[in-house]
Amino acid sequence: MKKKIKNNVSWIGKVDWELQKFHGDEYSTHKGSTYNSYLIEEEKIVLIDTVWAPFAEEFVENLAKEIDLNKIEYIIANHGEVDHSGGLPALMKRIPDKPIYCTSNAVKSLKGQYHQDWNFQVVKTGDKLDIGNGKELVFVEMQMLHWPDSMATYLTKDNILFSNDAFGQHLATEKLFNDLVDPCDLFVEAMKYYANILTPFSAILKKKLEEVLSLHLPIDMVATSHGVIWRDNPIQIVEKYSQWANDYQENQITIIYDTMWNGTKLLAEKIAEGIELADSEVVVKVFNLAKSDQNDLITEVFKSKTVVIGSPTINNSFLHSVAGFIHLMKELKFKNKKAAAFGCYGWSGEAVKQINEWLQNAGFAVIDEGIRNQWNPDINVQNTALEYGKKIARSV
What range does the domain containing 23 cover? Predict the structure, then answer.
């Protein structure tokens, strides 16, 4: 169903209430998502992006109910990923000769995914497209935010920035605008989205935000490709991104562990207790990795100034769950964060040393050699863990 967002601009996307995983199974979407497509009906009719492939036929049928598809003059593909471009094959069967405006890299990704030689029109930053009534579309390349093919499209006079993946959230809602949803839910999902998807590109993002602002384009609305549209003080999310891109951290220390027979769990709890004794102001959070969502944990890492990782030793190494999580942290290229390690063992005890090496390799400043304990922690070892927590608190 078409929903008007401003003047002759409408939302024509899909709300996916049931979505629980994204990017395969890599990203958890506890609150679903939306696939936002936009229809501009000026002298020239323009479609900006489509929807994810499973909803392609539904999307095209709904679009055809709203407008004669043959009247669409231009199609804008801000990004070739299938959650945005998945409706193109079904749409282009109906209107095969219509031009698709996108970056040169998007031509590669769209051809590579759909094996179709559509009527591609390559654009770059600053290029404009006249759509009548004195309005233009201005294109801004957003390379590596988060694919090499990404771009944003700006509509003059209406002052709408169609930002694609930038500034979005995975949040299913029938309420189109940021001022109509729970702000707590909104910013939790916006931060999770940034932490898990955009963190590796923070340096690029800072430069791109400066570039966009240097164009001096008045922005009354930021129309994202996932979640709500920012219309109430839309610059607030741009400002948040500027903060998050600047090696973001809060006054938080996060302890993440996996355990076999609860010895490592006990160490985690005592380390947390020690941190709180040494610094009553710091936020301390403790998570059992095996019982937590990894993307939610990444958001906690994003907020933290120090991350403490624990695992028992098994097969002369540490648990594969912990290895996978450290690898995920490495992929996200966190900056300016400290780390420490701990764990129990029965026979050989290599885990803590290896965790430290992995943390250092992932870009974390390791506080020291960590603590390791043979067998179950007795009262003396519990006190040692408590003192170690105090040391961690004082090191940041």
Answer: 3-244
